[in-house]
Amino acid sequence: LVSRKRKSKDTVIDLGTVQIGDGIPKIVAGPCSVESEEQVFQVAEVMARQGVKMIRGGAFKPRTSPYDFQGLGLEGLQILRRVADHFGLKVISEIMSPADVEMATRYVDVIQVGARNMQNFDLLRAVGSASTPVLLKRGLAATMEEFLFAAEYIVSSGNDQVVLCERGIRTYEKWTRNTLDISAVPLIKQESHLPVMVDVTHSAGRKDLLLPLAKAAFAAGADAVMVETHPNPSVALSDSRQQIDLPTFEQFMTQLRESRFLPELL
Ligand code: PEP
Ligand code: MN
């Protein structure tokens, strides 16, 4: 069902005020984790000024260590919704349990299935039974075929509103947190009609590569790029090394516009 052979026309995810896959490159930005209403407000204010219409933020966080910050849960989703509505933004946030799907649909515009859950088949079926669009991230060590079959689980359960997100894969290379598989972008575009996003933050795991990786993503045909930004990254409760502060985020946007990878007015 996700194959181009079944449907040659590109799938466009229509969120009302913004579309993903309509041929106009988009940015998704926001903090790694929702930490407080004030934090999300500060980020959203800058995003709105930059014309960015989709905010991300983790409320249910898949952390490697059980002792690390696990997210604010439902309260985090409520914060995202309130702030997003204030600025006219759309919300993308991750859930990890099939039991949370129905609750999440009340607060988010796009449900994220994270890399660590790409093959959580019960979760894939659960989000597939909902009518809220899904952002499916590529697993840490997933092949292209496994990635597309994971999307197939969602679509075959009844939800054809799926965006595929390349977020870097595990390789032997240590200078980046993951290795951005840029070839995944044209490969997915050839094989599937679903829109493609590239998460440059989790791919790189460092701030100095975000701009060139975003340019590469758009040059390769990505429909959207995701980037994490935080008002004060050094005290962030997760991913403090790789989130960019708000002035740097504004520079990132300006440079993408100046190099014509983004339209003048988003
Ligand atoms: C995220 O986007 O918040 C995240 C945890 O990313 P990933 O699942 O790609 O590691
Ligand atoms: Mn993060």
Automatic annotation (TrEMBL):
Keywords: Coiled coil, Transferase. GO terms for molecular function: aldehyde-lyase activity; chorismate mutase activity; transferase activity. The keyword Cytoplasm does not apply. It comes from the Bacteria. One of its GO terms (biological process) is chorismate metabolic process. This is 3-deoxy-D-arabinoheptulosonate-7-phosphate synthase /chorismate mutase. The chain holds residues 94 to 359 of 362 of the full protein.
